[in-house]
């Protein structure tokens, strides 16, 4: 069958890389894609929020399966739009509709959902510009540090952990009055800070049944030792050493099952991925956030560990037949190091020629923010540029291979964290 992936980042390149290996895939398309997806698929000049253009591409290229990568089109209702087109009635789609995507599209919705269905999470309250004074007073009574989250989509950067009361008050005012995150910050969720170790668990749902994919840990801060502002993610590791069988069993019983039961109780047929951001607090799982899709850069370590055919699994989800499906996970460790443009996550330049990519031995290079210039050279086209994934029989081996590759890639202003995975090596020690 012909398959279409929506998106242009490292996550979408990872999906394209994996799906291109499937005997079920005849022609693979990515809209709009990047320089990496162009190596394994045909890029289409269609934006992932151009619903009309996507529908036309599905018809023109005889697409039978659509995978929606990013959160924005999901929250904006791309699945609802496509399902409303009579000529697309037989097209299979992996991705939740607008109602399901609220799990990510609104932090306030997700916190209320967790409270309603008894899913463990941090205590929180939500404030708007109309209740700013109440919010500021509430901060004065709150224990430090304080977590502030923009309610809507903010490209992974809408979370602020304030170490002082003044910082928290300034952040809340900046969001609600100064529109720091635009409409995404029209509501601010103030949360209790949880002390523990963070990780992510990924679930594929067909609306009734589910499969739990390999877990991962990502590194959100720009600076080493988790310092500086949040980014979209600077690297990731899978599996996660502190997520043993007992902990993951608790995640399934206390989080996964009640989440899916809650969605069904709300009348939401959720077909697609649920990214569950968790904190391991003394062996107990607490949900930090939901995302309505796979994570980035976590996908770049999760998919390489799935040894089975991915298209078979995706079709099972779309056809509500996950109960009859299974897949094999590699026991190896995957580590990815993200190379970013200088200045990221703030202002950065594009168009820098990337050198030495052809020398990546025993490494899978996933393109995130890349394109090609008039000379056919691969150049930077975003904040996060590349994700360099290594598989090895040990965590230390995978870290070393990924980091060695990161030193080899060259472009003006490149930056990467040199401590991806080192905390987990120390944890094992």
Automatic annotation (TrEMBL):
<dbReference type="GO" id="GO:0046872">
    <property type="term" value="F:metal ion binding"/>
</dbReference>
<dbReference type="GO" id="GO:0006189">
    <property type="term" value="P:'de novo' IMP biosynthetic process"/>
</dbReference>
<dbReference type="Pfam" id="PF01071">
    <property type="entry name" value="GARS_A"/>
</dbReference>
<dbReference type="InterPro" id="IPR013815">
    <property type="entry name" value="ATP_grasp_subdomain_1"/>
</dbReference>
<keyword id="KW-0067">ATP-binding</keyword>
<dbReference type="InterPro" id="IPR037123">
    <property type="entry name" value="PRibGlycinamide_synth_C_sf"/>
</dbReference>
<comment type="pathway">
    <text>Purine metabolism; IMP biosynthesis via de novo pathway; N(1)-(5-phospho-D-ribosyl)glycinamide from 5-phospho-alpha-D-ribose 1-diphosphate: step 2/2.</text>
</comment>
<feature type="domain" description="ATP-grasp">
    <location>
        <begin position="111"/>
        <end position="319"/>
    </location>
</feature>
<keyword id="KW-0658">Purine biosynthesis</keyword>
<dbReference type="Pfam" id="PF02843">
    <property type="entry name" value="GARS_C"/>
</dbReference>
<dbReference type="InterPro" id="IPR020561">
    <property type="entry name" value="PRibGlycinamid_synth_ATP-grasp"/>
</dbReference>
<dbReference type="GO" id="GO:0004637">
    <property type="term" value="F:phosphoribosylamine-glycine ligase activity"/>
</dbReference>
<dbReference type="InterPro" id="IPR016185">
    <property type="entry name" value="PreATP-grasp_dom_sf"/>
</dbReference>
<dbReference type="InterPro" id="IPR011054">
    <property type="entry name" value="Rudment_hybrid_motif"/>
</dbReference>
<keyword id="KW-0436">Ligase</keyword>
<comment type="similarity">
    <text>Belongs to the GARS family.</text>
</comment>
<dbReference type="Pfam" id="PF02844">
    <property type="entry name" value="GARS_N"/>
</dbReference>
<dbReference type="InterPro" id="IPR000115">
    <property type="entry name" value="PRibGlycinamide_synth"/>
</dbReference>
<dbReference type="GO" id="GO:0009113">
    <property type="term" value="P:purine nucleobase biosynthetic process"/>
</dbReference>
<dbReference type="GO" id="GO:0005524">
    <property type="term" value="F:ATP binding"/>
</dbReference>
<dbReference type="InterPro" id="IPR011761">
    <property type="entry name" value="ATP-grasp"/>
</dbReference>
<dbReference type="InterPro" id="IPR020560">
    <property type="entry name" value="PRibGlycinamide_synth_C-dom"/>
</dbReference>
<keyword id="KW-0547">Nucleotide-binding</keyword>
<dbReference type="InterPro" id="IPR020562">
    <property type="entry name" value="PRibGlycinamide_synth_N"/>
</dbReference>
<protein>
    <recommendedName>
        <fullName>Phosphoribosylamine--glycine ligase</fullName>
        <ecNumber>6.3.4.13</ecNumber>
    </recommendedName>
</protein>
């Amino acid at each position: 069958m012909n398959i279409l992936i929506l998106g242009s980042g490292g996550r979408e390149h990872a999906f394209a890389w994996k799906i291109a290996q499937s005997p079920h895939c005849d022609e693979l398309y990515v809209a709009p894609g990047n320089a990496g997806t162009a190596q394994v698929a045909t890029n289409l000049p269609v934006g992932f929020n151009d619903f009309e253009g996507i529908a036309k591409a599905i018809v023109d290229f005889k697409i039978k399966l659509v995978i929606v990568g990013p959160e924005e089109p999901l929250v904006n209702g791309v699945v609802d739009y496509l399902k409303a087109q009579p000529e697309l009635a037989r097209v299979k789609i992996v991705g939740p509709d607008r109602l399901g995507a609220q799990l990510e599209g609104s932090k306030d919705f997700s916190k209320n959902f967790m409270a309603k269905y008894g899913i463990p999470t941090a205590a929180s309250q939500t404030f708007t510009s109309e209740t700013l004074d109440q919010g500021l007073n509430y901060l004065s009574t709150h224990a430090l540090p304080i977590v502030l989250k923009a309610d809507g989509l903010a490209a992974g950067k809408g979370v602020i952990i304030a170490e002082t009361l003044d910082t928290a008050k300034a952040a809340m005012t900046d969001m609600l009055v100064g529109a720091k995150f635009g409409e995404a910050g029209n509501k601010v969720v103030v949360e209790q800070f949880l002390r523990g170790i963070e990780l992510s668990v990924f679930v594929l749902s067909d609306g009734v049944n589910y499969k739990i994919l390999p877990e991962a840990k990502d590194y959100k801060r720009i600076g080493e030792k988790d310092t500086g502002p949040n980014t979209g993610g600077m690297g990731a590791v899978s599996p996660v050493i502190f997520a043993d069988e007992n902990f993951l069993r608790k995640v399934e019983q206390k989080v996964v099952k009640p989440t899916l039961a809650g969605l069904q109780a709300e009348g939401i047929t959720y077909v697609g991925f649920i990214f569950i951001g968790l904190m391991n607090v003394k062996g107990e799982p607490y949900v930090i956030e939901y995302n309505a899709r796979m994570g980035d850069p976590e996908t770049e370590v999760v998919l390489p560990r799935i040894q089975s055919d991915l298209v078979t699994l995706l079709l099972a989800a779309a056809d509500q037949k996950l109960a009859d499906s299974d897949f094999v996970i590699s026991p190896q460790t995957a580590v990815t190091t993200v190379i970013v443009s200088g200045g990221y996550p703030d202002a950065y330049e594009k168009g820098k020629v990337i050198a030495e990519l052809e020398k990546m031995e025993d490494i899978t290079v996933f393109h995130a923010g890349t394109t090609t210039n008039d000379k056919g050279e691969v150049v930077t086209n975003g904040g996060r540029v590349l994700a360099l994934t290594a598989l090895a029989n040990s965590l230390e081996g995978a870290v070393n291979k990924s980091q060695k590759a990161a030193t080899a890639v060259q472009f003006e202003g490149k930056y990467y964290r040199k401590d991806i995975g080192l905390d987990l090596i120390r944890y094992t020690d």
